[in-house]
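Shipment paperwork, digital attachment
Item: protein structure file
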Amino acid sequence: MVLLVIVIALVVAAASRHGTPAPTPRGVAHRATLGPPRALSPGLLGVDGEAIIGPGVWTNPRFLSAVAALRPETIRVFGGTPANFWNWRAGTYVRSPRVPSTLSALRAHIRVTLADWARLVRVTGAAPVFDLNMFTSDLRSQLEMLHAARALGLPVSEVELGNELYLPQYAGRFRDGAAYGRAASRWIAAIRRAFPGVLVAADAYPGRDSNSGTVDRRERDWNSQLLRTLRGASALSLHAYFTSGLGPRASLASPAAAEKMLRAPERRWAALERLISRLPRRLPVWVTEWNLFDTVARVHGTWAQGLAVAAFGLDLLSAPRVSQSEYETLVDSAPFGAIFGSTAGLQLASGRGGGPVTFRAVLARAPATPPFGLATGGVAMQGLLGALAGATFARSMSFGSAPVRGMAVAGKTGPGAVIVNLSRKPFLISVLGPLRGLPYTERWARPITLVTGTASLRAHTGTTGSTFDLEPFSLLEIGTAG
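Attachment content:
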């Protein structure tokens, strides 16, 4: 009954706000326009568990506590690129000339067993999404892994077939999308026989918004060829990275540069949405990796990245075709980690999944990072996941012409919202009735600020009224435990 009242209140609050609102006079609050309601299924938002960090991380109680505090709904087991080279029996990378040198160099220093993954899933309450090794392993071994995982208490409910196998380096294994589709169909049939009811996603090409590399013909044709031969899939998995749109000399010390960067998530989402619209409607989409990915501008590790993560996450959560998504990545240094794995988390170096990629640091001598503390993406994810905890439905929020976006939620724990201001300007917004009288936390900082946890940001807390003054470049959480 409480949920019904909240839903009705949010619907009534939005009833007079359809269409494009008129320009808001100075001093008058921007009123919210709500998008269509969306039911929130369990496991909608989680993290990609890259298994590339050095010894002792996965079993460290502080790490387990940090992940549990983040409250991911899913954890992608074996991560992304590492999954293509992972030996689940040994808990490290396979011995093969196919393994990139940067990963094979780590082989002796890493041991993350299936029992370690089971412990992490148990402590966090997250659902595992198994990313299988179709490149350096075989179907029999991967089925044995899934049976071993279930014996350890890991539910086998969602499975993904490989990681970015459309990339050129995997052409020796899969000549094209059609060859992958035929192999994937055999794997799907076998996995479903062994685990009735399991959902299995095939690896689709997501388009590219990257300033590193070019798109070859194999990538461009992958989806059309895949769909001609794929049978039995429950979903298609996509990865969505976006660049800042800034040049090598740009600085986030400039508010104009920051605002330009913070338009990038919307640009990338629009392109991804067009691609999704061309995929079969019967197949939901899993976005199993997403983040800012920029090798040109000095942007990683900054508060601007955190705001971009929040903005893109809101797009994913508002899209009915997206039935699950995993932020890249759980624990690592910047540019991607939600949680820092060491004190050198802002000392950017080469390497994403073993590839020869170099990111540019904001400062030559970056501050030390707290091991297992929140990185900038982790702060944003904490806000999004906090809103989702206990929520059963959501509606996107926009505020006229203001570069302010958000999401209102309702569920067992009552109403809540996450709102992000992507502008250098403060904005006065109207607070929807169900969101008034609730506790809030607002965090903000200069976009160039390097984030080593929430202490890097300015913040204030209180109780919402009928209006709210948003700080520039801010993230507001209402009624959540963030």
